[in-house]
Design brief:
Keywords: Hydrolase. Helix content is about 25%, strand content about 25%. By secondary structure, it is α/β, with parallel strands linked by helices. The strands form 3 sheets. It has a 6-stranded mixed beta sheet. Strands 7-8-9-10-13-14 form a 6-stranded mixed beta sheet, with helices on one face.
């Protein structure tokens, strides 16, 4: 399988529409790939909190339309990253879209873990509540977004649902870049799965981005890693390696589930 991670730069001097057109062009340029991935909130910037409500779109809005067309024209499976979605009730979500090579919507994922603690995304956006997997020829994707990477139980649940390739678009800050690569490798090792983690370049509302999109194999080995600037990271990998790894080292079979919590000490 050939995957291309588009580490697009998000800068304030470019309009969302101009970036949407540029992203579509970058996707079309990946014709011949099997899977193309864009990062989190690339239309606004992950830290441009004040832009979320103003630039929110319905699910089938301009980002949906541009990315569906780009996927169809390139003939690729496209994880189109995420954008601020406004639903019919007016609630905001950090929503990812996955399109088939025909341009049809294969899945939508609303980010479950929202970053910010008591500010930013955590208070401005609603939380999703549904696990999302997507069956591709040769592998099943498990879909997560950015801050989700810090919660291993989500990825265990995706693996239990059949995921073999974990796709994580992000707008991860440069100041915590060490966590980005560490957590991507950890999620790969503990789940014996490929991890494709696609970040952004540039600066979001004054927050420098980590970049360093990364592809990790089921043994935790880094197959490819981008730098800090705008870049398309392309890597070829064999999805069947997941099954071989799980057979050679069947650690997932030794999971002990349903443990009781210890009673509090008096």
């Amino acid at each position: 399988m050939r995957a291309s991670l588009i580490q697009i730069a998000v800068n304030e001097d470019e309009t969302a529409e101009a970036r949407r057109l540029r992203a579509a062009s970058l996707v079309r340029a990946q014709a011949g790939a099997d899977l193309v991935v864009l990062p989190e909130l690339w239309t606004t910037g992950a830290f441009a909190f004040e832009e979320f409500a103003a630039r929110a779109e319905p699910l089938e809005g301009p980002t949906y339309e541009a990315m569906a067309k780009a996927a169809s024209e390139a003939g690729v499976w496209l994880h189109a990253g995420s954008f601020p979605e406004r639903d019919e009730r007016g609630a905001l979500y950090n929503t990812s879209l996955v399109f088939s090579p025909s341009g049809d919507l294969a899945a939508a994922y609303r980010k479950i873990h929202r970053f910010g603690f008591d500010k930013g995304e955590a208070v401005l956006m609603s939380a999703g509540d549904t696990l999302v997997t997507v069956a591709l020829p040769g592998t099943t994707l498990g879909v997560a977004t950015c801050y989700d990477l810090r919660f291993p139980e989500l990825f265990r649940a995706l693996v239990d649902a059949g995921a073999e390739t974990l796709v994580v678009p992000a707008g991860w800050p440069e100041r915590r870049r060490a966590h980005w690569t560490l957590l991507a490798r950890a999620r790969a090792v503990e789940n014996q799965a490929f991890v494709l983690a696609c970040g952004t370049a540039g600066t979001h509302a004054g927050m420098p981005q980590a970049g360093h999109s990364i592809v990790v194999d089921p043994w935790g080995e880094v197959l490819a890693e981008a730098g800090s600037g705008e870049e398309v990271l392309t890597v070829e990998f064999d999805p069947a390696e997941v099954g071989r790894t799980r057979e050679r080292f069947p650690a997932l079979k030794d999971r002990v589930l349903g443990l009781d919590r210890p009673a509090p000490r008096a």
